[in-house]
Write a structure and sequence with these properties.
mainly alpha; two-stranded antiparallel sheet; 5% strand; 192 residues
Length: 192
Amino acid sequence: MKKEELSENNIDKENIEYGKFWIRTGAYLTDAIILMLIVLPVTYLNITEYKSFSLYLILALIGFFYKPLMEYYFGATIGKYALDLKVTDTDFNKLTLQQSFLRSSILILPTLFFIPISYLAFNNPEILKINSFVEYGQAIALNYPMQNYITNLMQLILVVEIIFLLTDKTKTERALHDRIGKTYVIKTKKEK
């Protein structure tokens, strides 16, 4: 094999296998489950018992930074690692921190709008009286309808992501966030 066919990570550029839709979906769902197992119980207790905006902010920051930092430091989130996927730049090298955050920006930016809404909610005496997780969600939706718009925007982004991934004519299986960050998701082990 010629030296110029290898990236700095010794990846054979000629025989790359890109992460396909279903395996990437599996990695995404694995990460979502992992984050939910950590964040959801604490969020539940925060809404029903503690009522702390600071705790909410810590949980939000965990959600914001999980994906970009894992992909920057390790080349993969836990879900991607479990399914033998790796995120690289378009030369198949390690991502820069900027690329990693840029790649995650279309998910991070809309969720940043939840922070001021949550700040208002955690300082709203009427909402603070609520001790039911479901009633809390209903009160937020009623008092802060902007949250519904943000949620709808995030769902639209997810649909656009899927469309980009499924209609990629280059066969590199790139979603919109891959294009924004100038990245690829590749298989680290060949299927037999």
